[in-house]
Amino acid sequence: MQKRIVILPGDGIGPEVTAAAERVLTEIGTAYGHEFEVKHAYLGGAAIDEYGTPLPQETIDACQQSDAVLLGAVGGPKWDSLPGDIRPEKGLLGLRKSLGLFANLRPVTIFDSLADASPLKDEVVQGVDLLIVRELTGGLYFGEPRERREVNGEETAVDTLIYSRSEIERIVRRGFELARERRGILTSVDKANVLESSRLWREVVEEVAGDYPEVTYSHMLVDNAAMQLIRNPKQFDVIVTENMFGDILSDEASMITGSLGMLPSASLSESGPGLFEPIHGSAPDIAGKGIANPLATLSSVVLMLAYTLEMPEEAKALQKAIDDVLKNGYRTADLTDQANVLSTDEMTEKVVEALKQTTATS
């Protein structure tokens, strides 16, 4: 089977972790008889340096013609002084919009072998397995007007939060569908006691819920959700929420696992290629040192195999390889304070070795 994959290395540690992913994809192709046609393209700061824009048309075209897109990370202090409309992050927002990506899936799973890396007590985190479903195309990040203006003689900044009923309905439906495939529990997070957009959100959830009688659902205010993620994260199965709330809550949830370097994400459209990326940033302070944790990116490849490339067996094999490596005690620097840690390349090779063992016995 041939699949076209666009890799966007991006900035900071992005090229290092996407190189790890490409190495693993090569092994999967060999083991299962697939041909992955890989093309590299520019996004973010690297694109600004090369093209003067964070999202070149060449990148958009390549991604739209692909089966899936894998991203490393974007941004860094080198570009922090640029105007907001040409910063690296603007490229990522534009790419999401050009691909029609509206559903961002961020799984949060505790590996038993890494429970001691969590800042929370073992009894709180053991068994955590939740999925945050974040709306990607609306809300404060895209609302207009976005501007600074003078009001009563004082400089004032304006951001606008806009959601349409159709935008809310499609992400809520995706949340219910995913909950139905998992444990059948959906928590809708909003701020309906304050925001009109959240009141509309809650109304839509109530309407859509009637189509999913097998799913138990509830509403939770975002401030309470932030607290409950720390107090009792095991109560959650699927959390569905709007753009900014999902951005914040998923970063909070990531620390339950003990490291941002462990969590993947998938951004999906109604049809067409998905975008897969680790949720960590570009980490410019460690870029080029060969110590970045590649496992979030490799876990993003798991999601890519499962959700877009329709290769469930391959996804399970790669997930098992990652699990086995961690169970065997291998760690990168972000997961331990011990001296004996693996580099990015060494951790990647451990996953490849485990993958070979898994595919040889399957």
From TrEMBL:
It is found in: Cytoplasm. Mg(2+) binds at residues 223, 247, 251. Substrate binds at residues 96, 106, 134, 223. GO terms for biological process: L-leucine biosynthetic process. Keywords: Amino-acid biosynthesis, Branched-chain amino acid biosynthesis, Cytoplasm, Leucine biosynthesis, Magnesium, Manganese, Metal-binding, NAD, Oxidoreductase. PANTHER family: 3-ISOPROPYLMALATE DEHYDROGENASE. Catalyzes the oxidation of 3-carboxy-2-hydroxy-4-methylpentanoate (3-isopropylmalate) to 3-carboxy-4-methyl-2-oxopentanoate. The product decarboxylates to 4-methyl-2 oxopentanoate. This is 3-isopropylmalate dehydrogenase. It comes from Halalkalibacter oceani. The lineage of its organism: Bacteria, Bacillati, Bacillota, Bacilli, Bacillales.
